[in-house]
Write a structure and sequence with these properties.
The protein is an alpha/beta fold. Helices cover 39% and strands 23% of the residues. It folds into 2 domains: 2-68 and 369-425, Urease, subunit C, domain 1; 69-361, Metal-dependent hydrolases (TIM Barrel). Helix 6 runs parallel beside helix 7. Bound molecules: guanine (GUN) and zinc ion. The site of zinc ion has 6 residues, from strand 5.
Length: 429
């Protein structure tokens, strides 16, 4: 079944971080032709209507039709503890995160939170995410089953920890390998789901566990591998104590087979020059989690330096260390951190990062993250006047970017007028 959606449309003709904002092209009166869950054509409304006179039309007026947002690093099990007060990383993990993650031994609880998280994501215009789960295989099954029921493209993995975590949240090198492998074989490539090999971070894995997961990755190099890197200075110092032979934090991964082009390193704030150079050389991705970085007090991602190195960067909420489910709020925080580090990111760059940039980081850019023929039809309609404060500012805008920026800075789920997964509008909740 075909359908034409009319509205404002943005198309990506290049990477605006490299080529500048003109790499993103705007149609004031644009259209998407959707057929069998995919985008069949994108272009000016008039010509697409003329070419397809028989196809039913949905007119979204002045709403912006955009690829759905792609959240490149979340912890869905932390949904219920988002916005927990007053701790920094290690205390925050011990006080809030680990007790909550312990509850996911109960498959019913895992299913409840997985469904709640995905509904919150969809309401915020997020159509794909890459999630950490917990140590419990049930937590992975719960998320993938909930994503499958909604038809979503979802990436996730069992979070492995064999030390410095409480009873009930520790595995071993062998059980981490065995259970990750079983989940990978069950889920990877099923429908729109991808398994991601997931050591939590070096402080909660023994060298043996990192090696075991490195071996699993070597057996399945098409999988992504996600972890955390250099988020807080206390954490970096702790890693130095735990791994005295390592040259730096990245080396704890590198020495155990956990550095490669399909690696995703969350945060990456306090990088040494060698680490940054090595990541750029390999082509691994850095995942920027700006609301988390200010909320947990981690520090400022060095935008000018990382840009100069041409790092591949994805954008993420890091729910629940991050303080929002919204990629709009995440773009706003990205802009603020850019300002604080001397790089004012353009709205076109922010929007691209939250869609195509994250898709590239997750190696799914040929499937989602852009409106182009052949792509899966995961898209959103964005109301650029969703609150009185935003409406009055955008009313005097002279171009799309001036019209969109108030929504980036002040918008939330009220700006998401609709979310479509594979061409089907989602009714949420
Ligand atoms: N480092 C290791 N685990 C976590 C986590 O759950 N959240 C954040 N923000 N950092 C981490
Ligand atoms: Zn994280």
């Amino acid at each position: 079944m075909a359908e034409l959606h009319l509205g404002q449309v943005v198309e990506y003709h290049g990477d605006p971080l490299i080529e500048g904002p003109d790499a993103v092209v705007h149609h004031r009166h644009g259209a998407l032709l959707i057929e069998d869950g995919k985008i069949a054509a994108v272009g000016p409304a008039q010509s697409l209507r003329a070419a397809h006179p028989e196809v039913p039309v949905t007119d979204h007026g002045a709403h912006l039709l955009s690829p759905g947002f792609i959240d490149a690093h979340v912890h869905y099990p932390q949904t219920a503890i988002i916005a927990s007060w007053g701790k920094r990383l290690i205390d925050w993990l011990n006080s809030y995160t680990f007790p909550e993650e312990t509850r996911f031994a109960d498959a019913g609880y895992a299913r409840d939170v997985a469904g709640r998280y995905l509904d919150l994501a969809l309401a915020n215009g997020t159509t794909s995410a890459c999630s950490f789960c917990t140590i419990h295989p049930e937590s992975v099954d719960a998320l993938f089953e909930a994503a499958q029921a909604r038809g979503m493209r979802m990436l996730a993995g069992r979070t492995c920890m064999d030390r410095n975590a409480p009873d009930g949240l520790r595995d071993t090198a062998q059980s981490a390998y065995d259970q990750s492998k079983a989940l990978l074989e069950r889920w990877h490539g099923t429908d729109r789901l991808s398994y991601v090999i997931t050591p939590r971070f070096s402080p909660t894995s023994s060298p043996e566990q990192l090696s075991a997961l490195g071996a699993l990755w070597a057996e399945h190099p098409d999988c992504l591998m996600q972890t955390h890197l250099s988020e807080q200075t206390d954490e970096v110092a702790w890693v130095r104590d735990l791994y005295p032979q390592a040259r730096d934090y990245l080396d704890t991964y590198e020495a155990h087979g956990l550095l490669g082009e399909n690696a995703l390193y969350g945060h990456a704030i306090h990088l040494e020059p060698r680490e940054a150079a090595r990541i750029a050389e390999i082509g691994a991705a850095l995942i920027h989690c700006p609301t988390s970085n200010s909320f947990i007090g981690s520090g400022l991602f060095d935008w000018p330096q990382r840009q100069a190195e041409r790092q591949r960067i994805g954008l993420a909420t890091d729910t629940g260390g991050g303080s929002s489910f919204s990629m709009l709020r995440t773009m706003a925080a990205t802009y603020e951190i850019g300002q604080l580090t001397g790089q004012p990111l353009h709205p076109a760059q922010l929007w691209w990062l939250a869609t195509q940039g994250s898709a590239r980081a997750l190696r799914i850019e040929h499937k989602v993250g852009a409106l182009a023929p052949g792509m899966e039809a995961d898209f959103i309609a964005v109301d650029l006047a969703s609150t009185p404060a935003i409406a009055q500012r955008q009313a005097r805008a002279e171009d799309i970017w001036e019209a969109l920026f108030p929504t980036i800075m002040m918008g939330d789920d009220r700006a998401i007028a609709g979310t479509w997964i594979a061409g089907t509008r989602q009714t949420i909740g």
